[in-house]
Give the backbone structure.
Amino acid sequence: MERTVLHPRFKDFPHFKNFWEHGNGKQLIEFSGAEVSFKDFETFSPFFYHVDEMGDQVVKDVYFTKNFLEASKEIEGYIRNGVSETDVVPESVKKLFAQTQKIPAWLDYNLLKSGAELCMRSNLDSLISLRDYCLIGGYDYAYLNKPLIVTEALKKGAVKRLSETLDFWVNATRYDALEIHAKGYEFAIKTRLIHSYARLSIKKHYNEWDTENWGEPINSWDMMATYIGFSLVFLHSLQKLGNTFSKEEEKGIFHLWKYVGYLLGIPEQLLPDDKKQATEYFYLWTSIQPPSDNDSVLLAHSLLNESLENPILKFEFQRKSLKYLHVCCTWFLLDDEVCKRLQIPDASNKKLFPKSKILFNTIYDRLVSRDARIKRGNKDQMKVLKDYLNITKNSNFH
Protein backbone atom coordinates (compact mmCIF):
# COMPACT_ATOMS: atom_id res chain seq x y z
CA MET A 1 0.00 0.00 0.00
CA GLU A 2 1.36 3.43 -0.93
CA ARG A 3 1.92 5.64 2.07
CA THR A 4 0.34 9.08 2.27
CA VAL A 5 2.84 11.90 1.80
CA LEU A 6 3.58 13.53 5.15
CA HIS A 7 2.68 17.20 5.65
CA PRO A 8 3.46 19.65 8.49
CA ARG A 9 0.04 18.73 9.80
CA PHE A 10 0.13 20.60 13.12
CA LYS A 11 1.72 23.85 11.90
CA ASP A 12 -1.52 25.82 12.34
CA PHE A 13 -2.42 24.31 15.70
CA PRO A 14 -2.22 26.47 18.86
CA HIS A 15 0.39 24.30 20.62
CA PHE A 16 2.82 24.65 17.67
CA LYS A 17 2.23 28.37 17.12
CA ASN A 18 2.42 29.27 20.81
CA PHE A 19 5.69 27.37 21.29
CA TRP A 20 7.42 29.00 18.30
CA GLU A 21 5.85 32.46 18.53
CA HIS A 22 5.74 33.03 22.30
CA GLY A 23 7.40 30.19 24.21
CA ASN A 24 10.69 28.30 24.35
CA GLY A 25 10.64 27.90 20.57
CA LYS A 26 10.79 31.70 20.20
CA GLN A 27 13.69 31.74 22.68
CA LEU A 28 15.49 29.00 20.70
CA ILE A 29 15.19 31.09 17.51
CA GLU A 30 16.62 34.14 19.34
CA PHE A 31 19.33 31.98 20.97
CA SER A 32 20.41 30.43 17.67
CA GLY A 33 19.68 33.00 14.97
CA ALA A 34 17.68 30.34 13.12
CA GLU A 35 15.62 31.16 10.04
CA VAL A 36 12.67 28.79 10.33
CA SER A 37 10.44 27.84 7.42
CA PHE A 38 8.96 24.76 5.75
CA LYS A 39 11.04 24.94 2.57
CA ASP A 40 13.11 21.86 3.56
CA PHE A 41 10.21 19.86 5.00
CA GLU A 42 10.16 17.35 2.13
CA THR A 43 13.90 16.73 2.53
CA PHE A 44 13.45 15.61 6.14
CA SER A 45 9.95 14.13 6.29
CA PRO A 46 10.81 10.76 4.61
CA PHE A 47 12.96 9.98 7.67
CA PHE A 48 9.74 9.60 9.70
CA TYR A 49 9.41 6.26 7.91
CA HIS A 50 13.14 5.43 7.88
CA VAL A 51 14.90 3.13 10.36
CA ASP A 52 18.37 1.76 11.11
CA GLU A 53 18.20 -1.34 8.92
CA MET A 54 21.83 -2.20 9.68
CA GLY A 55 21.12 -2.44 13.41
CA ASP A 56 17.88 -4.33 12.78
CA GLN A 57 19.69 -6.98 10.74
CA VAL A 58 22.27 -7.54 13.51
CA VAL A 59 19.43 -8.09 16.00
CA LYS A 60 17.79 -10.60 13.64
CA ASP A 61 21.08 -12.45 13.07
CA VAL A 62 22.39 -12.43 16.66
CA TYR A 63 19.67 -11.74 19.24
CA PHE A 64 16.90 -13.66 17.49
CA THR A 65 19.03 -16.80 16.94
CA LYS A 66 20.11 -17.46 20.56
CA ASN A 67 19.15 -16.55 24.11
CA PHE A 68 19.44 -12.91 25.14
CA LEU A 69 22.40 -13.27 27.55
CA GLU A 70 24.41 -15.29 25.06
CA ALA A 71 23.69 -12.74 22.30
CA SER A 72 24.62 -9.81 24.58
CA LYS A 73 27.92 -11.48 25.48
CA GLU A 74 28.69 -12.04 21.78
CA ILE A 75 28.00 -8.38 20.95
CA GLU A 76 30.16 -7.23 23.89
CA GLY A 77 33.01 -9.28 22.46
CA TYR A 78 32.67 -7.53 19.10
CA ILE A 79 32.55 -4.09 20.75
CA ARG A 80 35.61 -4.69 22.94
CA ASN A 81 37.78 -6.59 20.47
CA GLY A 82 36.65 -5.13 17.15
CA VAL A 83 35.52 -6.93 14.00
CA SER A 84 37.62 -7.40 10.87
CA GLU A 85 36.71 -8.46 7.33
CA THR A 86 38.25 -11.91 7.90
CA ASP A 87 36.36 -12.70 11.12
CA VAL A 88 33.82 -15.53 10.93
CA VAL A 89 30.77 -13.50 11.97
CA PRO A 90 27.43 -12.67 10.29
CA GLU A 91 27.71 -10.22 7.37
CA SER A 92 25.39 -7.80 9.20
CA VAL A 93 27.86 -7.64 12.11
CA LYS A 94 30.75 -6.92 9.72
CA LYS A 95 28.71 -4.17 8.06
CA LEU A 96 27.71 -2.47 11.32
CA PHE A 97 31.21 -2.54 12.80
CA ALA A 98 32.79 -1.43 9.51
CA GLN A 99 30.67 1.70 9.89
CA THR A 100 31.21 2.31 13.62
CA GLN A 101 34.96 1.52 13.51
CA LYS A 102 35.48 3.94 10.61
CA ILE A 103 36.36 7.38 11.96
CA PRO A 104 34.44 9.95 9.89
CA ALA A 105 36.62 12.56 8.14
CA TRP A 106 34.80 15.38 9.98
CA LEU A 107 35.57 14.12 13.51
CA ASP A 108 37.54 16.64 15.63
CA TYR A 109 38.88 15.24 18.92
CA ASN A 110 39.47 18.72 20.36
CA LEU A 111 35.79 19.53 19.91
CA LEU A 112 34.78 16.22 21.53
CA LYS A 113 36.95 17.22 24.51
CA SER A 114 35.37 20.70 24.74
CA GLY A 115 31.87 19.21 24.63
CA ALA A 116 32.69 16.69 27.35
CA GLU A 117 34.21 19.43 29.50
CA LEU A 118 31.07 21.56 29.32
CA CYS A 119 28.95 18.56 30.33
CA MET A 120 31.19 17.95 33.35
CA ARG A 121 31.75 21.62 34.22
CA SER A 122 28.02 22.28 34.45
CA ASN A 123 27.86 19.75 37.28
CA LEU A 124 24.35 19.09 38.67
CA ASP A 125 22.86 21.73 36.35
CA SER A 126 23.56 19.25 33.54
CA LEU A 127 21.45 16.64 35.32
CA ILE A 128 18.68 19.15 36.12
CA SER A 129 18.64 20.20 32.45
CA LEU A 130 18.43 16.62 31.20
CA ARG A 131 15.65 15.70 33.59
CA ASP A 132 13.53 18.84 34.02
CA TYR A 133 13.73 20.23 30.47
CA CYS A 134 14.98 17.67 27.92
CA LEU A 135 13.30 14.53 29.26
CA ILE A 136 10.04 15.83 30.71
CA GLY A 137 9.70 18.41 27.90
CA GLY A 138 9.98 15.56 25.39
CA TYR A 139 6.90 13.97 26.92
CA ASP A 140 4.81 16.83 25.47
CA TYR A 141 5.28 15.30 21.99
CA ALA A 142 2.62 12.61 22.02
CA TYR A 143 3.74 10.51 19.04
CA LEU A 144 7.40 10.51 20.13
CA ASN A 145 6.41 8.67 23.33
CA LYS A 146 4.47 5.82 21.73
CA PRO A 147 7.39 3.33 21.72
CA LEU A 148 7.84 3.94 25.46
CA ILE A 149 4.17 3.25 26.08
CA VAL A 150 3.84 0.13 23.94
CA THR A 151 7.05 -1.43 25.34
CA GLU A 152 5.53 -0.84 28.80
CA ALA A 153 8.33 1.42 30.04
CA LEU A 154 5.98 2.69 32.76
CA LYS A 155 5.98 -0.78 34.33
CA LYS A 156 9.75 -0.72 34.53
CA GLY A 157 9.50 2.43 36.63
CA ALA A 158 11.06 5.88 36.36
CA VAL A 159 13.97 5.07 38.71
CA LYS A 160 15.23 2.36 36.37
CA ARG A 161 14.64 4.44 33.22
CA LEU A 162 16.41 7.45 34.73
CA SER A 163 19.30 5.27 35.84
CA GLU A 164 19.73 3.91 32.29
CA THR A 165 19.58 7.39 30.73
CA LEU A 166 22.08 8.73 33.26
CA ASP A 167 24.41 5.76 32.72
CA PHE A 168 24.41 6.38 28.96
CA TRP A 169 24.79 10.18 29.21
CA VAL A 170 27.59 10.15 31.82
CA ASN A 171 29.56 7.45 30.00
CA ALA A 172 29.25 9.25 26.65
CA THR A 173 30.43 12.61 28.03
CA ARG A 174 33.75 11.84 29.77
CA TYR A 175 37.26 12.34 28.38
CA ASP A 176 38.04 9.96 25.47
CA ALA A 177 34.71 8.16 26.11
CA LEU A 178 33.97 7.77 22.41
CA GLU A 179 37.28 6.21 21.37
CA ILE A 180 36.66 2.87 19.65
CA HIS A 181 36.23 0.15 22.34
CA ALA A 182 35.89 2.78 25.12
CA LYS A 183 32.90 2.97 27.47
CA GLY A 184 30.92 5.64 25.61
CA TYR A 185 31.43 3.84 22.29
CA GLU A 186 30.18 0.63 23.93
CA PHE A 187 27.07 2.38 25.27
CA ALA A 188 26.31 3.85 21.84
CA ILE A 189 26.46 0.44 20.08
CA LYS A 190 24.41 -1.27 22.80
CA THR A 191 21.81 1.52 22.76
CA ARG A 192 21.60 1.26 18.97
CA LEU A 193 20.85 -2.47 19.20
CA ILE A 194 18.35 -1.95 22.07
CA HIS A 195 16.49 0.46 19.76
CA SER A 196 16.49 -2.14 16.96
CA TYR A 197 15.37 -4.89 19.34
CA ALA A 198 12.51 -2.71 20.63
CA ARG A 199 11.49 -1.66 17.11
CA LEU A 200 11.38 -5.23 15.79
CA SER A 201 9.46 -6.39 18.88
CA ILE A 202 6.89 -3.60 18.42
CA LYS A 203 6.45 -4.46 14.75
CA LYS A 204 6.00 -8.15 15.59
CA HIS A 205 3.78 -7.99 18.67
CA TYR A 206 1.89 -4.67 18.59
CA ASN A 207 -0.73 -4.85 15.85
CA GLU A 208 -2.22 -1.45 16.69
CA TRP A 209 0.97 0.46 15.86
CA ASP A 210 -0.20 3.42 13.70
CA THR A 211 2.69 3.83 11.24
CA GLU A 212 0.84 6.43 9.21
CA ASN A 213 0.55 8.88 12.09
CA TRP A 214 3.31 7.80 14.47
CA GLY A 215 5.98 6.98 11.91
CA GLU A 216 8.04 3.79 12.13
CA PRO A 217 8.82 2.86 15.76
CA ILE A 218 12.01 4.69 16.86
CA ASN A 219 12.40 6.18 13.38
CA SER A 220 15.37 8.26 12.22
CA TRP A 221 13.53 11.61 12.42
CA ASP A 222 12.43 10.98 16.02
CA MET A 223 16.01 9.93 16.82
CA MET A 224 17.24 13.25 15.42
CA ALA A 225 14.82 15.14 17.67
CA THR A 226 15.93 13.13 20.72
CA TYR A 227 19.59 13.97 20.13
CA ILE A 228 18.79 17.64 19.51
CA GLY A 229 17.43 17.40 23.07
CA PHE A 230 20.92 16.43 24.27
CA SER A 231 22.55 19.34 22.41
CA LEU A 232 20.37 22.36 21.58
CA VAL A 233 17.75 21.98 24.34
CA PHE A 234 20.45 21.06 26.87
CA LEU A 235 22.47 24.22 26.04
CA HIS A 236 19.37 26.40 26.22
CA SER A 237 18.58 24.98 29.64
CA LEU A 238 22.11 25.59 30.94
CA GLN A 239 21.85 29.19 29.76
CA LYS A 240 18.47 29.61 31.49
CA LEU A 241 20.06 28.41 34.73
CA GLY A 242 22.76 31.08 34.52
CA ASN A 243 25.60 29.06 33.05
CA THR A 244 27.92 30.57 30.47
CA PHE A 245 29.85 28.67 27.81
CA SER A 246 32.45 29.53 25.19
CA LYS A 247 31.95 29.24 21.42
CA GLU A 248 34.33 26.28 21.49
CA GLU A 249 32.29 24.49 24.18
CA GLU A 250 29.07 25.18 22.30
CA LYS A 251 30.55 23.75 19.08
CA GLY A 252 31.87 20.86 21.15
CA ILE A 253 28.42 19.85 22.44
CA PHE A 254 27.01 19.65 18.92
CA HIS A 255 30.07 17.78 17.69
CA LEU A 256 29.94 15.26 20.52
CA TRP A 257 26.28 14.42 19.93
CA LYS A 258 26.78 14.40 16.15
CA TYR A 259 29.36 11.64 16.64
CA VAL A 260 27.16 9.75 19.13
CA GLY A 261 24.33 10.01 16.56
CA TYR A 262 26.65 8.66 13.87
CA LEU A 263 27.52 5.65 16.07
CA LEU A 264 23.80 5.12 16.74
CA GLY A 265 23.08 4.86 13.01
CA ILE A 266 21.25 8.18 12.59
CA PRO A 267 21.76 9.37 8.97
CA GLU A 268 24.46 12.06 8.91
CA GLN A 269 22.28 14.61 7.08
CA LEU A 270 20.00 14.67 10.16
CA LEU A 271 22.81 15.53 12.59
CA PRO A 272 23.16 19.32 13.06
CA ASP A 273 26.56 21.02 13.35
CA ASP A 274 25.38 24.04 15.34
CA LYS A 275 22.45 25.63 17.17
CA LYS A 276 21.12 27.43 14.07
CA GLN A 277 20.84 24.17 12.10
CA ALA A 278 19.49 22.30 15.12
CA THR A 279 16.69 24.83 15.66
CA GLU A 280 15.71 24.79 11.99
CA TYR A 281 15.64 20.96 11.97
CA PHE A 282 13.69 20.84 15.23
CA TYR A 283 11.11 23.33 13.92
CA LEU A 284 10.24 21.02 11.01
CA TRP A 285 9.99 17.93 13.23
CA THR A 286 7.68 19.59 15.80
CA SER A 287 5.17 20.33 13.03
CA ILE A 288 4.24 16.62 12.83
CA GLN A 289 3.86 16.14 16.60
CA PRO A 290 0.56 16.68 18.46
CA PRO A 291 0.62 17.99 22.05
CA SER A 292 0.49 15.89 25.24
CA ASP A 293 -2.06 13.13 25.56
CA ASN A 294 -2.94 10.88 28.53
CA ASP A 295 0.18 8.78 27.99
CA SER A 296 2.32 11.94 28.16
CA VAL A 297 0.76 12.88 31.51
CA LEU A 298 1.41 9.38 32.89
CA LEU A 299 5.08 9.52 31.81
CA ALA A 300 5.56 13.02 33.28
CA HIS A 301 4.03 12.06 36.63
CA SER A 302 6.03 8.85 36.73
CA LEU A 303 9.20 10.96 36.37
CA LEU A 304 8.12 13.52 38.99
CA ASN A 305 7.22 10.78 41.48
CA GLU A 306 10.60 9.12 40.94
CA SER A 307 11.96 11.39 43.69
CA LEU A 308 9.44 9.90 46.15
CA GLU A 309 10.14 6.28 45.14
CA ASN A 310 13.91 6.57 45.02
CA PRO A 311 15.61 5.22 48.19
CA ILE A 312 18.86 7.18 47.65
CA LEU A 313 17.49 9.73 50.13
CA LYS A 314 16.72 8.06 53.42
CA PHE A 315 13.93 10.23 54.82
CA GLU A 316 10.53 11.04 53.36
CA PHE A 317 10.87 14.79 53.94
CA GLN A 318 14.10 14.76 51.86
CA ARG A 319 12.32 12.99 48.99
CA LYS A 320 9.39 15.41 49.11
CA SER A 321 11.82 18.35 49.10
CA LEU A 322 13.64 16.92 46.08
CA LYS A 323 10.36 16.48 44.20
CA TYR A 324 9.47 20.10 45.03
CA LEU A 325 12.81 21.32 43.62
CA HIS A 326 12.29 19.34 40.38
CA VAL A 327 8.74 20.72 40.07
CA CYS A 328 10.12 24.26 40.50
CA CYS A 329 12.79 23.69 37.83
CA THR A 330 10.25 22.16 35.44
CA TRP A 331 7.97 25.21 35.71
CA PHE A 332 11.01 27.51 35.29
CA LEU A 333 12.50 25.71 32.27
CA LEU A 334 9.37 24.72 30.33
CA ASP A 335 6.55 26.91 28.99
CA ASP A 336 3.62 27.30 31.39
CA GLU A 337 1.32 25.91 28.68
CA VAL A 338 3.41 22.71 28.44
CA CYS A 339 3.43 22.32 32.23
CA LYS A 340 -0.36 22.67 32.31
CA ARG A 341 -0.78 20.10 29.52
CA LEU A 342 1.46 17.66 31.41
CA GLN A 343 -0.49 18.49 34.60
CA ILE A 344 2.66 19.44 36.52
CA PRO A 345 1.48 20.35 40.04
CA ASP A 346 1.74 23.99 41.05
CA ALA A 347 4.19 24.92 43.81
CA SER A 348 4.57 27.89 46.13
CA ASN A 349 7.54 30.23 45.55
CA LYS A 350 8.47 28.14 42.52
CA LYS A 351 10.91 30.67 41.09
CA LEU A 352 12.99 30.91 44.25
CA PHE A 353 15.22 27.85 43.72
CA PRO A 354 15.95 28.45 39.99
CA LYS A 355 16.67 32.15 40.62
CA SER A 356 19.00 31.18 43.49
CA LYS A 357 20.78 28.79 41.11
CA ILE A 358 21.34 31.62 38.62
CA LEU A 359 22.86 33.81 41.37
CA PHE A 360 25.03 30.93 42.64
CA ASN A 361 26.28 30.13 39.12
CA THR A 362 27.21 33.77 38.48
CA ILE A 363 29.32 33.88 41.65
CA TYR A 364 30.75 30.35 41.31
CA ASP A 365 31.81 31.15 37.72
CA ARG A 366 33.89 34.10 38.91
CA LEU A 367 35.47 32.48 41.95
CA VAL A 368 36.33 28.96 40.82
CA SER A 369 38.66 28.06 37.95
CA ARG A 370 37.39 26.18 34.91
CA ASP A 371 39.63 23.17 35.62
CA ALA A 372 38.44 22.96 39.23
CA ARG A 373 34.81 23.10 38.08
CA ILE A 374 35.38 20.31 35.53
CA LYS A 375 36.97 18.08 38.19
CA ARG A 376 34.27 18.83 40.74
CA GLY A 377 31.47 18.34 38.20
CA ASN A 378 32.88 15.01 37.05
CA LYS A 379 33.17 13.81 40.65
CA ASP A 380 29.62 14.89 41.58
CA GLN A 381 28.04 13.41 38.44
CA MET A 382 29.88 10.11 38.93
CA LYS A 383 28.63 10.04 42.53
CA VAL A 384 24.99 10.49 41.41
CA LEU A 385 25.42 7.76 38.78
CA LYS A 386 26.99 5.40 41.32
CA ASP A 387 24.08 5.95 43.73
CA TYR A 388 21.54 5.17 40.99
CA LEU A 389 23.39 2.08 39.80
CA ASN A 390 23.68 0.76 43.37
CA ILE A 391 19.92 1.03 43.81
CA THR A 392 18.88 -0.45 40.49
CA LYS A 393 21.44 -3.26 40.49
CA ASN A 394 21.01 -4.31 44.11
CA SER A 395 17.28 -4.03 44.54
CA ASN A 396 13.99 -5.14 43.05
CA PHE A 397 13.80 -2.18 40.62
CA HIS A 398 13.21 -3.93 37.30
